[in-house]
Amino acid sequence: MFDAPIDLKRARILLSNDDGIHAPGLKILEKAVRTLSKDVWVVAPETEQSGASHSLTLHRPLRIRKVSQRKFAVDGTPTDAVLLAINRILRDHKPDLVLSGINRGGNLGEDVTYSGTVAAAMEATILGVPAIALSLIAENEDSARWATAAAHFAKVVRGLASVGWPDNVFLNVNFPDVPADKVKGIRVTRQGRRKLGDELVERKDPRGRSYFWIGAMRMEDEGKRGTDLATVNAGAISVTPVYLMLAPGPTLHRLKKVFP
Q1: What is the DSSP secondary structure assignment for residue 125, as one 8-state letter?
Q2: Which pTM was predicted?
């Protein structure tokens, strides 16, 4: 069970992401984590893997590139990176905590099913290591308020580490798109609802054949209190527990009446 508190000062902490080994969010996360622990490792994808979800690379070999001391790049997905980090690079002394991010762009509502950031935390949880996914709401790279995430990161992670959480759960944290001094607290939330892909943009290539861009995600559930969407839109930090157990109990009982 993960329920025991994590002693961050003594913890081995693994960092990963889906934006790639050179992403600004990963650099900020690494700097922030080093104020909590001296035993910090980074294993992240070689290139950006946004939207990779919980995918594994099965049809080609994977390579690990040593970037620097305790820092490695994997030419695969976020799931590949965490799998190789825990079962290969750190197999003799596994991490006590995995942090994934800080992602440029929120991971809210149904985003968790697409997100490589979330998938890295999910893979760590499956492999028996407590994990937190961290994302920053940002319209674009130039306007991302990294200072907001950096300013509040330690308080969030220290608070979560002080209580622990069940071993079939990982935590999904989203920082709002507001200045650091305008953040309206930290709230525990439930997952909201929004959908990717309702806006499809059709264009023609030089040969007249159609191709498509998947557009912005909308249909946001931002008006419902207590959701991750409503919380970040109100300027607060959202902390959402996500369960790996995908089969809902009431539905199981209902179906068993038909197929006992």
Answers
A1: H
A2: 0.91
